[in-house]
Amino acid sequence: MLRYASERDKANQILNLTSITVEQFEQLVEPFEQAFVRHMRQWTMEGKPRTARAYTPYVNSPLPTPEDRLLFLLSYLKVASLQVAHAAAFGMTQPNANKWLHLLLIVLHQTLRDLGDAPARHLLALRERLAQLQAEEQAQDAPAPLFTTMARNDRSPARTTMLSRRRTIAARKSVIP
Q1: Cα-trace Rg, the chain
Q2: Which end of the chain has fewer beta carbons closer than 10 Å to its terminal beta carbon, N or C?
Q3: Which one, of 32, 35, 37, 45, lies nearest residue 95 by Cα?
Q4: 10 Å Cβ neighbour count for 96?
Q5: Phi, psi (deg, nearest 5) at residue 43
């Protein structure tokens, strides 16, 4: 079974599985676990509101540690393997893997929002975030960011196929010998 404790010390294994370094991974574990516990206080594994008893991690959990949960999710997002194969790598069934993936995706999105690292959904939100980062960097006398948002280009000069015509010929007019 794939476990963080066994993979951490192997050279570049966490980087290969998740696309982030061990240091970045370990920085993300604590906020991820806080978001997980917050989510589990309100919701069950099946996504229903928690009404009866409080969440406690069970002894025979397929993902016993916060590191294992984060590794499970990030490796799935990188590889996008079949859930059956991913479940087998972590020693669980496909339905159980599906349940964990849906739960942990919600937790990861909340973690990224809490850290201010969630992807922007709209261009305006991206502009605001970039302006905020530039202001912070200028306050620290740091160099300008390496990327910027570019304006949309005009229409392409290439001819478009007229789809409203009854007959459309999709061939070159001149033939190259």
Answers
A1: 23
A2: C
A3: 45
A4: 16
A5: -130, 155
pLDDT in 10s for each residue of the chain, 177 residues: 888 888 888 878 888 888 888 899 999 999 999 999 999 889 888 888 888 888 887 788 888 899 999 999 999 988 877 888 888 888 889 999 899 999 998 898 888 888 877 777 788 888 887 888 888 888 776 455 544 555 555 666 666 666 666 666 655 566 565
The β-bridge partners of 43 are 49
Residue whose pair of structure tokens reads 């990327």 in the numeric block: 147
Q: What secondary structure does DSSP assign to 21-38, as a single string?
A: -HHHHHHHHHHHHHHHHH
Amino acid sitting at position 176: I
Tokens 């963080």 belong to residue: 4
